[in-house]
Amino acid sequence: MTEIAAKQQITKRVDKVIYSRVGKHSRMLEHDDVVTEQPLQINLHWRCISTDSKEQALKVKVFAITMRTLGDDKFLILGLLFSEGVINNVSEVESIFIDNSDEDAKGNRWQVQLAMGKVPILTSIERFQTTYSSCGLCGATSLKALELKDPPNLLTLTENLTFNADLIYILSDKMREQQKLFSLTGGVHGAALFNQQAELLSVFEDIGRHNAVDKLIGQRLYTQQSPQPKEMLIMLVSGRVSFEIVQKAVMAGISILAAVGAPSDLAIKAAQRFELTLIGFTNNESFNLYHGDWRISH
To answer: By C-alpha distance, which of 210, 218, 221, 250 is closest to 233?
Structure first.
């Protein structure tokens, strides 16, 4: 991406506002850059054979409505569908396009046409919608649901591979240097992917932690970069680690998940169940290792 194109993308993701800076003895008007936040509606389309007429019938269902920062919507959608087990690879998606038929929803409604023969499991869609609306699932149920999605075996992928602990201290600074939107607004989360040599592979930002991770995973899926045996990938996220973030990492075959903030208890239990190396409170001096210490060498 050229520098001009990058600046144009950033411009679309911020809004200019006027605010009052109030001090103990002063008040003045100033300008600020704030990150955009708009809803994204994802509609799923697929074909199935009618049992009565034996003819193809087109089914449509709203998969999700989520708040996100504008940009990289295609990656976000692919990452979300993949991490929720709706698709296994990009070939199962025939097309993804913006629906501008409704002027009020222009740019915020996307249609996903699944490939011929691909029929989503409706129970998984309903479970996803329930989870994101008010949860209602206990920890044990969430772990079982992730097991049913048949995630890759992280132990097999990274057998006998280790990551140098000294490299973990530099991950936060490497990600921060590439967070252009955060530098401008201070209002977004980041997700970065590194290889075993701590080389930065990609960085995505969004107002939502989950969205930043979905964009990162979706970009890899779009470029058909699936996890390979003897490949160790490290994902760093800003903020805390919830169960959903662990789920996305496990589904993507990422063996080490590090965070600037703290993990939840269910995130730790999920890391233990699926043998994910989980690290919290990462900075340039120390980190907390909650599970998977065998992958971290000194």
So the answer is: 250
pLDDT at 71 over 50: yes
**Token pair of 209 as six digits:** 């932690």
Q: If pLDDT is split at 50, 70 and 90, which confidence band does 120 have?
A: confident
Distance CA 124, CA 85 (A): 8
Please give the single-letter amino acid code of residue 46: W
Helices vs. strands in the chain: H and E counts, helices first: 11, 14
* Catalytic entry in 119, 135, 140, 170: 135
Let me know if 135 is a catalytic residue. yes
- Contact, 195 vs 232, CB < 8 A? yes
The answer to the question of residue 47 being in a domain is yes
Predicted TM-score (pTM) of the model is 0.88
Quick check: 221 and 89 in contact, CB under 8 A?
yes
Instruction: List the domain range (segments joined by +) for residue 286.
Output: 154-297
Counted domains in the chain: 2
Q: Give residue-wise pLDDT tens across range 40-49.
A: 999 999 988 6
